[in-house]
From TrEMBL, chain A:
UniProt keywords, alphabetically: Amino-acid transport, Cell inner membrane, Cell membrane, Membrane, Transmembrane, Transmembrane helix, Transport
Domain ABC transmembrane type-1 per the UniProt entry, residue ranges: 16-215
InterPro entries for the chain: AA_ABC_transptr_permease_3TM (IPR010065), ABC_transp_permease_HisMQ (IPR051613), MetI-like (IPR000515), MetI-like_sf (IPR035906)
Protein name as catalogued: Polar amino acid transport system permease protein
Record localization: Cell inner membrane; Cell membrane
One Gene Ontology MF term: transmembrane transporter activity
Transmembrane segments: 20-40, 66-86, 92-111, 132-150, 194-215
Organism field: Pseudomonas linyingensis
Gene Ontology CC annotations of this record: ATP-binding cassette (ABC) transporter complex
Tagged with keyword Zinc: no
Pfam families referenced in this protein's UniProt entry, alphabetically: BPD_transp_1
TrEMBL record, chain B:
Top-rank lineage group of the source organism: Bacteria
Positions of transmembrane segments: none
Protein's cellular compartments: Cell envelope
Listed Pfam families: SBP_bac_3
GO CC annotation, single: cell envelope
Record protein name field: Polar amino acid transport system substrate-binding protein
Automatic annotation (TrEMBL), chain C:
Keywords, ordered alphabetically: Amino-acid transport, Cell inner membrane, Cell membrane, Membrane, Transmembrane, Transmembrane helix, Transport
Membrane spanning stretches: 20-41, 53-76, 96-119, 163-183, 195-215
Name of protein: Arginine ABC transporter permease protein ArtM
N-terminal signal peptide: none
PROSITE patterns attached to this UniProt entry: ABC_TM1
GO molecular function, one term: transmembrane transporter activity
Length: 231, 250, 230
C-alpha cells in the first residue's frame, strides 16, 4: 500500500504519522491557551486584558521558526531547576515536546482572537438568563457559553489548524522526524531532492483535503438546528 | 501570561519530557548527515564511522547507549541543554569550541581540502580564487577557515548540512567546496561526485577530531579516554577503520 | 563576552540581516499582488474552466509549507540537467532569486484568495448600477469592482504582509543572510545562541509593530472602515 520510493516510502509514512501526532498535540495545547487568552482579553480586569493582549502581540510578532528554536534550546535552565526539585536533574524537552509547545503557543495567540470574536457574538441576555435561573458563573460558561462558542469559532479554528499543519514542517529544524525531515534525509541519501520534496508536498495536500472534509462534517454537526443566513 | 506559560511548560514537561540519563544510559549526539562518519539509512538507523566508534566505546564502558540526532549548528547548544551526554560527530577540536565544551583525546585526524569540477582549472592560491563562490557547512572549521582567511577574496556560502553544499556543487551554484578531506573523499567516490576532484594541497592539515562532553564533565571524559585507548589497543578501532577507509585515519 | 559587547560588535551585521529581510518581503508582496490580480479575478469567475487553473495553483501553494516550496525550487529543480542548461538558470542558481520567486508565488496564492473574497463583497447593486449606466463588463471591473475591492481587501492584505515577514524566516536554509541567517551564523561562532535568537526575535517584533502602525495609518487615511460592505 505504501509506495517504495527507493526504500524511503515507509520512512515518509512514519513521518506523516509524526506530523499528525504533532499537529494534534499542538492544537490541544493551543485551544486551551486560546480560550484562556480570549477570556483574559474579554475580562473586566485591566491587568488580565493587558496580559492577554501582550501574549497575542508578542507571539504574533515573532516568527514561528524562532519560537520553535527558542523553546527547544531555551527552556533549559528553567526546566533543569524544576527537574532538580522533582529528582530528575536531567529533565529536558525533547523535540516533540518543544514543537508541541511552540506551535501550540502560536496557535493559541491566533485562536484567542477567534474565540474572542465568538464570545462577543453570544448575546448578553443568555448570560443574564442563566444568572436569573441561579446558575453559577462556571456552570453558565460550561453549559451555555462553551457549546455555542464552539459553533461560531469552528470555521476560524479550522483555518488555523490548516496553517498549523504546515507549520509542523518547521519542527524539522530541530530534527523531529516528521514529513519534511524524512524527505530531506531521503533526498540526501538518494540525491533526488525533487522526487522526495514533491512526494512530501503530495502528502501535505492529502492531509489538507482530509482535514477540510473532517471540518466540513464537524461544522455541519456543530450547526445542527441553527438557521443560517443565506445570501 | 508568563506565569501561565511557564506553568503550562511545566505541565507539558511532565507529560512529554524524557527524564534522561537513568544511571547507566548514555545518549550520544550526532548529526546524521555527514557520510561516511554519520548518516541515516533508509530504515532510519544512524550509521557510520562515528557511530560505530561511539558504540564500541559504550561497550568498553559497559554502558547502554542511545543515538540522538541534532542539526549541526545546534549540536553544541543541544549538548549543553542536556539533550545528550556526548557528541560523536566528527567534531574538530578548536580553541573556540573549548570555550563551550570539553574534548576527549582525538580519535582521528583530518585535513581541509578544496574540491571542484574536474573540467575546471581550479587553483587554490588567493589570486586564482578571487571572486569564486565557495560552499561550506555552517559552524564547521571549513566555514570558519574560509571566513577568516578568504573572507574578502571569495564569496562564502554556508549550508546547514554538508550534503546541501554538495548538491549545490553538483548543480553548479558554487565553484568549489571546502570540507574535511575524508568526507570529500567519500563524496568523490559516489556517483554524484564522479566529475569532481581534489584541488590543490590541503589548506589545513592538523585537524584533530575529538568527542565533546559538557564542560566540567571530567568523569565521563576520563571514561571515554580510557575506552578509546582500549579499543585502539585491542584492534576494535582498526577493524572499524578498515570497514570505511583503506588507510589509517587515527 | 558580556551582552553589551556582543550587541556593539554584532548589531551592524544583524541590521544587514534586517535590510535583506525587508527587501525580500517588500518585493515579494508587491510582485505577489501583481501575480494575484489575474488569479483572483479568474477565481471569482462564474465559469468553472476559468476557475480551474487558478484554483489548482492556490490549492497547491496554500496547502504546502513555504519551507517545502523553497526546497523544491532551490534544491529540487536543480536535480534536472534541463533546468541547469535553460535560460532561467542564471536566476535559479542564485538563492536570492529562488527565495524571491518562492515567496512571491506563495503569497500570490493567499492574496488571490483575499481578492476573491473582496470582489464577492462588493455589493451587487453597485455593479448593476454601473452596467445600467452603460459601462461594459470590463469597465465595471476596472472602475467599480476593483477599486472597491481594493479598499475592502486592504486590512487582509496588510495582515498577509506581516505573515510573510514572519514566514520569510526560513530563507536562511538556502544560504541567505536574513535576520535568522545572521543570528544563526553569528551564534555558530560565538556560542551565544539564545542571545542571538532573542535579539532576532526583538528585531522581528519591532518590525511587526512598526508595520502594524503604518498600515493602520494608511487604512484610516483611506477610510477603509467606511468602504466596508454592509
Amino acid at each position: 500500500m505504501i509506495p517504495d520510493l527507493q526504500g524511503f516510502g515507509p520512512a515518509l509514512a512514519a513521518g506523516t504519522w509524526m506530523t499528525i501526532k504533532l499537529s494534534v498535540a499542538a492544537v490541544s495545547v493551543g485551544l486551551v491557551l486560546g480560550l484562556l487568552g480570549a477570556l483574559a482579553k474579554t475580562s473586566g480586569h485591566l491587568a488580565l486584558r493587558l496580559l492577554g493582549g501582550g501574549y497575542t502581540t508578542l507571539v504574533r510578532g515573532v516568527p514561528e521558526t524562532l519560537w520553535v528554536l527558542m523553546i527547544y534550546y531555551g527552556t533549559v535552565s528553567g526546566l533543569n531547576a524544576f527537574g532538580a526539585l522533582l529528582g530528575y536533574p536531567e529533565l529536558a524537552l525533547n523535540p516533540f515536546a518543544a514543537g508541541t509547545l511552540a506551535l501550540g503557543l502560536c496557535f493559541g495567540a491566533y485562536a484567542s482572537e477567534v474565540f474572542r470574536g465568538a464570545l462577543l457574538a453570544i448575546p448578553k441576555g443568555q448570560h443574564e438568563a442563566g444568572q436569573a435561573l441561579g446558575l453559577s458563573g462556571l456552570w453558565i460558561f460550561w453549559r451555555i457559553t462553551l457549546p455555542q462558542l464552539w459553533r461560531t469559532a469552528l470555521p476560524g479554528l479550522g483555518n488555523l489548524y490548516m496553517i498549523l499543519l504546515k507549520d509542523t514542517a518547521l519542527v524539522s529544524l530541530i530534527s523531529l522526524e516528521e514529513i519534511m525531515r524524512k524527505a530531506s534525509v531521503a533526498s540526501n541519501a538518494t540525491k533526488a531532492p525533487f522526487t522526495f520534496y514533491m512526494s512530501a508536498a503530495a502528502i501535505y495536500l492529502g492531509l489538507t483535503v482530509i482535514v477540510m472534509l473532517v471540518l466540513h462534517q464537524l461544522e455541519k454537526r456543530a450547526g445542527r438546528g441553527i438557521a443560517r443566513n443565506e445570501l | 501570561m508568563k506565569i501561565r506559560n511557564s506553568l503550562l511548560a511545566f505541565a507539558a514537561a511532565l507529560v512529554f519530557a524524557t527524564p534522561a540519563l537513568a544511571a547507566d544510559k548514555l545518549r550520544i549526539g550526532t548529526e546524521g548527515a555527514y557520510p561516511p562518519f554519520n548518516q541515516i539509512d533508509a530504515s532510519g538507523n544512524v550509521v557510520g564511522f562515528d557511530v560505530e566508534i561511539a558504540k564500541a566505546l559504550c561497550v568498553k564502558m559497559q554502558a547502554e547507549c542511545e543515538i540522538v540526532t541534532s542539526d549541526w549548528d545546534g549540536i553544541i547548544p543541544a549538548l549543553n541543554a542536556k539533550k545528550f551526554d556526548f557528541i560523536a560527530a566528527s567534531m574538530s577540536i578548536t580553541d573556540e569550541r573549548k570555550q563551550a565544551v570539553d574534548f576527549t583525546d582525538p580519535y582521528y585526524t583530518n585535513k581541509l581540502q578544496f574540491i571542484a569540477p574536474k573540467s575546471v582549472d581550479f587553483k587554490t592560491d588567493e589570486v586564482s580564487l578571487e571572486g569564486k563562490v565557495i560552499g561550506a557547512q555552517r559552524a564547521t572549521i571549513a566555514g570558519t577557515w574560509l571566513e577568516d582567511n578568504l573572507g574578502d577574496v571569495v564569496e562564502v556560502k554556508l549550508y546547514d548540512t554538508q550534503e546541501n553544499a554538495y548538491l549545490d556543487l553538483a548543480s553548479g551554484r558554487v565553484d568549489g567546496v571546502l570540507a574535511d578531506k575524508l568526507v570529500n573523499w567519500e563524496w568523490l567516490k559516489s556517483d554524484a561526485g564522479k566529475d569532481f576532484e581534489f584541488k590543490g594541497e590541503p589548506v589545513y592539515d592538523d585537524d584533530k577530531i575529538g568527542i565533546a562532553v559538557r564542560k566540567g564533565d571530567d568523569a565521563l571524559r576520563e571514561k571515554l579516554n580510557g575506552a578509546l585507548k582500549a579499543i585502539v589497543e585491542d584492534g576494535t578501532y582498526q577493524q572499524i577503520n578498515d570497514k570505511y577507509f583503506p588507510f589509517s585515519i587515527y | 563576552m558580556s551582552g553589551w559587547e556582543l550587541l556593539v560588535k554584532w548589531t551592524p551585521k544583524m541590521l544587514d540581516g534586517v535590510a535583506l529581510t525587508l527587501e525580500l518581503v517588500a518585493i515579494a508582496v508587491v510582485a505577489g499582488l501583481i501575480v494575484a490580480l489575474p488569479l483572483g479575478i479568474s477565481r471569482a469567475s462564474r465559469h468553472w474552466y476559468v476557475r480551474a487553473l487558478p484554483s489548482a495553483y492556490i490549492f497547491f501553494f496554500r496547502g504546502t509549507p513555504l519551507l517545502l516550496q523553497l526546497f523544491i525550487v532551490y534544491y529540487g529543480l536543480a536535480q534536472f540537467p534541463a533546468v541547469r542548461q535553460s535560460v532561467l538558470w542564471p536566476f535559479l542558481r542564485d538563492p536570492y532569486w529562488c527565495a524571491l520567486l518562492t515567496m512571491t508565488l506563495h503569497t500570490a496564492a493567499y492574496i488571490a484568495e483575499i481578492m476573491r473574497g473582496a470582489i464577492h463583497a462588493v455589493p451587487v447593486g453597485e455593479v448593476e448600477a454601473a452596467r445600467a449606466l452603460g459601462m461594459s463588463r470590463r469597465q465595471a471591473l476596472w472602475h467599480i469592482i476593483l477599486p472597491r475591492a481594493a479598499r475592502i481587501g486592504l486590512p487582509a492584505y496588510t495582515n498577509e504582509v506581516i505573515l510573510m515577514l514572519k514566514a520569510s524566516a526560513v530563507v536562511y536554509t538556502v544560504t541567505l543572510y536574513d535576520i535568522m541567517g545572521m543570528a544563526k551564523t553569528i551564534s555558530a561562532r560565538t556560542y551565544e545562541q539564545m542571545f542571538f535568537f532573542v535579539f532576532a526575535g526583538v528585531l522581528y517584533l519591532i518590525i511587526t509593530i512598526a508595520l502594524t502602525w503604518i498600515f493602520r495609518g494608511i487604512e484610516r487615511w483611506l477610510r477603509v472602515d467606511a468602504a466596508r460592505a454592509r
